[in-house]
Structures are given as C-alpha cells and as structure tokens.
Specification:
Layout: E1 2-9, H1 15-28, H2 33-51, E2 59-66, E3 70-78, H3 88-97, E4 100-106, E5 109-117
Antiparallel strand pairs: 1-2, 2-3, 3-5, 4-5
Helix pairs in contact: 1-2, 2-3
Length: about 120
C-alpha cells in the first residue's frame, strides 16, 4: 500500500488536478476506461461538497491510498461550522459510480471518503 497526497485551493478551477491525479493513479492500477470515467465523476462530486461556500483561500487535502485492486480517496477541508451536505442527485450519481463513499462534518471540518475497485474485464 502506498499513498499520494495533494493539496489544492478550494477553487473549482483546481478540480481538474484532483480528477487527473485519481485517473492517473487508477490507470496505473489497470482500471478500465469506464471505471476511470466513474472515478473522475465521483471525485468531482465529492470535492464540490468540500468546496461549497468555502473561500478559495482554504486548502483541500486529498489522500489517494493505493491498494492492489482498489483506490481509496480521502478529502479534508477546514470549514468553520462544518456543514457538509450531499445533494440527493449527487448521492444517486455517487451510488452509480463509486463502490463506497461517505461525507461527514465534524466541528470545523468537512471530509469525504471514496473507494473504487478495479473491475476485471472479461472478454
């Protein structure tokens, strides 16, 4: 198991960095094209929850934990009052694209976790 850490400003312009890092790591793990696209969508949705109403001066820390056949991503953002809320449409989209996920608020922090398994392709 290894880990990659990335810190980005809480600005939607930097969501691309979070998505590309996830796709790059998952591609190295042998994820198929559909799993890569699902992962990009899931990362985008979960990072958007962290960024909601947060000034761009705040930093989001992302940890990409690499397993043999899965990628686990943890996001964290200090936000006064916490208040992470997942829109029902986003939650449904995440149920379709992630193997497991969660969003939480604890005091002055927002966080998420996401797990995406590599699905072996059978021909």
């Amino acid at each position: 198991m290894s880990e990659v850490r990335v810190v980005i400003p809480a600005d939607v312009r930097f969501l691309r960095v979070a998505r590309l890092t996830a796709a790059g790591v998952a591609g190295d793990l042998g994820f198929g094209l559909q799993d890569l696209e699902d992962l990009r969508v899931a990362v985008d949705e979960l990072c958007a929850v962290l960024m909601d109403g947060v000034p761009a001066t705040v930093e989001i820390e992302l940890r990409y934990v690499i397993h043999e056949d899965s990628l686990e991503i943890h996001g964290h953002c200090p936000v006064p009052g916490g208040g992470a809320k997942l829109h029902p449409v986003a939650a449904e989209l995440l149920r379709m694209t992630a193997d497991s996920f969660g969003v939480s608020s604890d005091g002055d922090d927002r966080s998420f976790h996401l797990v995406k398994q590599r699905h072996d392709l059978t021909v």
